[in-house]
Amino acid sequence: MVASAVFKLVLLTVGLLAMAGGWQLGLGTLQEPGPGLWPAMVAAVLAALTVFLLLNERHSEVEGLTPRSWKVAVAVATLVVFVFGLAYLGLILPTVLLLVFWFRWLGDEPWPLSLLLGTIFASAYYVLFAVLLGVPFPPDLVLGLFGANNT
Amino acid sequence: MEAIMQGFEVALAPINLLYVLLGVTVGMIIGVLPGLGPAPTIALMLPLTYALSPETAIIMLAGIYYGSMYGGTITSVLLRIPGEAASVVTAIDGYEMAKRGRAGQALGISAIGSFIGGTIAIIGLTLFAPWLAQVALGFGPAEYAVLAFFGLLLACYVGSGTFARAFIAVCIGLLLATVGQDPISGGTRFTGGQIELYSGFDLVVIAIGLFGIGEVIYNLERDSGLTARIHTKFRDLFPSRSDLRRSAGPIGRGSLLGFVIGALPGGGGMVSSLASYAVEKRVSKNRDEFGKGAIEGVAGPETANNASSTSAFIPLLTLGIPSNAVLALIFGALLLQGITPGPRLVSENPEVFWGVIASMYIGNLMLLMMSLPLVGLFAQLLRVRMSILAPIALMLSLIGAYSINNSITDVWLVIGFGVVGYTLRKIGLEPGPIVLGFVLGTILETSFRQALLTSNGDMSIFLARPFSASLLVLVLAVGSLSVWKSSKRLRQKRRAERTSVNPSRPHEKDHV
After folding, report:
1. What ipTM, to 2 d.p.?
2. pTM
3. Could you say which residues from 110 to 169 on chain B have a Cβ atom under 8 Å away from some Cβ of chain A?
């Protein structure tokens, strides 16, 4: 599949770039190896092996994008939204929302179970990390509503 | 043996007893649950170990590791789905035994064999490790470079997937390790001017990203239905006398085999259980029963894989070289505590060294006591669906990532690595070797450059010292063997494709 060939080409590019980067950092000599020697060596092996993969493997054998791959895109999008939520709304609300979304839409679980599990686990994470481990999270919207902001 | 007594003092402290119990329980649970292995779990628990003392942290993480070996057996026997890579072999004869209503005996003999194998391995570890640490004190950078390289090579050779792929993954890990400060010259490399990258990537971030997030989103594409029949009807949990008699030999052989294979850098549970199965099949009088429910086919491999997960700690604790991804993470946990594992660990941090070893005896005993009565309970765990587990693990990854440095940047990085992990998985590159390469990268590069500096650029230093020379020969042997094997496989495949493409020309097959 084209997708897998593209991924491999990207990997090859990374390898070649790393080789160039290593050369730029200075290869030095064998007597005095420079900072770029090791990265360049490793990158060269990486590039060579990737070329081997590209040439010798039938790309149809390896996976491409499947009908379910949209789920991955959606999933990553939810993670990005979560991080913004965490920064501005604190821990609890984004956690509940993310969990419920994943249970309900990506997991096909029924509404009541999703909501219940989402709330239970969000609370559990709060207790574990914020209370027991004392990790300072950004100011929490939910806790603020109860007037109990602990930052 | 005063040292091991000191170790027991540490291991029997109430907090360490609590944590080893926690560790083996968590380990057993995740061993049972498909889709969640010891590597992601330990990765997720790394942020939590900050708050613990070094010996407690490692005691718990080690417990998770060998506990998960026990847990993996349960799904192998009951569902023919190996919970862990090391239980693949058990799924063969174990499941057949279950079909004949003998699941209880299979699980029982696994528990007994694992306990014996683990105990023998721990005894071996107690006797052998200090001696090896002593020898390793004489190792110079050349030896370390070759040893680390050998470990990586062997890990690629025995890992799943092709050698080329595993080695590419290792190279990626090695490159990731170069980001940040150059260990020898002190300058910065590949940071692109970002201050956060000056000290390089955090192992925890990479581990959580690849394992916690990457694997979860990768599995979204997979059908997670568990539709296999669970054979949970078992009356007796205890193996009969003839079962025990037949298993005695396999258990004995499995212990030794597992101990030796596990101690090699790169060796692991899967290899030792496969090797044990092969040996037992060859020496057994009941050879024909193999594949149809021979108890030797369960007793031997299970013993071997538990023995090997214990002896795998030898290279880590004595040489400072982890032999697989899980141990690489445990290595990382020690680094987080400010301890660099190596030959000096025995003398500088005896409470860690001996405490962990002593705790393994205790953990092993706890597993035996728990696994037999609680098997029914664990079997129920199999009902938990991936659709519930995955978001929980994912959330733990995200929050755990934040808690490392109370930084949102880390959460972004973790998501980034998750996407990278997913992409690499699509081309068949696994996260384990990447982590192993990352952890060993600094050691390998530093040793390599120091060796060259010492020898003034003379590459023959790697051959001059006998230990590194013999290892190099082995390295070349393994390397060329795998290259030859992959090319042979490719040639065979091409030949097969050519004949199948021309079905109307049957006489062509004769030429193959």
Report:
1. 0.88
2. 0.79
3. 164-165, 167-168
